[in-house]
Amino acid sequence: MSVGEWEALINVVLLGLLLVVTFGIIRLRNLFGVVMLAGIYSLLMAMVFTLLDAVDVAFTEAAVGAGVSTILSLGTLALIDSRREKIPFRFQFTPMLVALVTGAVLLWGMQDMPDVGAAGTPTQVHVAPYYIERTPVEIDVPNIVTAVLASYRGFDTLGEVTVIFTAGIGVMMLLSSMPVIGARRRRRRNGDDQGNDT
Amino acid sequence: MIEHLVPRILAKLLIPFILLFGLYVQFHGDFGPGGGFQAGVIFAAGIILYALIYGLDRARRVVTPGLVSFLVAFGLLIYAGVGVATLLLGAEFLNYSALDSHDPVHGQHLGILIIEFGVGVTVAAVMITIFYQFAGRLQVTRELESDEADDEDEEEMTGSPQ
Amino acid sequence: MMEWLGQFNYYVFAILMTAGVYIAMSRGNLVKKVVGLNIFQASVFLLYISSGKIWGGTAPILGDGLTQPISNPLPHVLILTAIVVGIATTSIGLALIVRIKEAYGTVEEDEIAEAEALYEEELMRAEEA
Lengths: 198, 162, 129
Hints:
By secondary structure, chain A is mainly α. Chain A has two domains: 85 residues, Four Helix Bundle (Hemerythrin (Met), subunit A) (Up-down Bundle); 60 residues, no CATH class.
């Protein structure tokens, strides 16, 4: 078997594992387990990305998705102090319908896509060769992803960093004030008390 | 703070290497996989590990919240500052070739290095800030709840049953 | 073997996206909703990265004596930044969940709606009084 065929085989195995983990996330009600499975999902995704030659993306997904995201989710679980999801009292018909229609439309749209991993597809022949040929001449850094990210699309990345900055400010604004535990809950209880008095 | 010996010792051993690896990813991003985004997250992960093992208060003494919130803005400022510098040097916004008047390719190298540093600083600072906010919230909420529980206990003790 | 695998990545993308939409819509628990959104998001990453791959190709890092084709670096750049924006939105979402829990005492959607209805009712009663 050639290298490409081996890659395709490992790809199928990893994606199969990804599907199993996703099914587990749907079924599981224990929130701690759900968060852990989400971390595993990210790690598997990072492995798929490595296989698909996106080493920078895999690096980021492993650090962000499996690392920081899991820590923040666990922190949230500790703060909201709820271990299990409530069991829904009836079968959810509408979400299932919407999801299935979405999936069907996507699968229908996929018919026209070229095979994964084929050379000479429209994705490969338009913009990519420009970056691959010009990077050694104009930027002269070996990592083309860094060259495109930082230089060709530097303005884009500036916006991206601004989004991160804004998220930091947003979380600060949401969580740095003194917590008022049960503002609405407390009022509800008081209201009931008053109702009893009159 | 975790009292167990093994995580404490292991964290002490690992944290310098995590931070060093963060710096490697930051400044080696032009040559191999890596760059500001990844390095920032790895660097923040080192600090977060310290906070998890040795407690939030000690982490806050090492990396003060004031410093972190300064760095959040500082990284973005470095990035935008490079853009303004290239404007002043007579080129387009973020056209790094203008940074070196003799060799445009060298200017590109310099520009990428500086803006990646800015990205790394902002990402690391934002991740640490978010973690501090969540962890700090947990601390404050626990204190409030224990106070409340104390109050209720007192009420039960003093209040006359009807 | 390659033939029947042709579009496998795209099928997995469709299934993952369907699963993500289903979790985000059907579950009342806000934490699980956020996890569902993350699955949805990661499925899009998979679509982009898959479209850039060439079997037998190599990562877009230049070196001496490179003979293999190079996979398309452009999707990598787009998704790299999308992942970091993803953690930013996730953290804001989780922070909002924390505040909702503090205000309502629950993170289940129907219980929040219940508490809100009671609150509204009470306001009406207060206005009448």
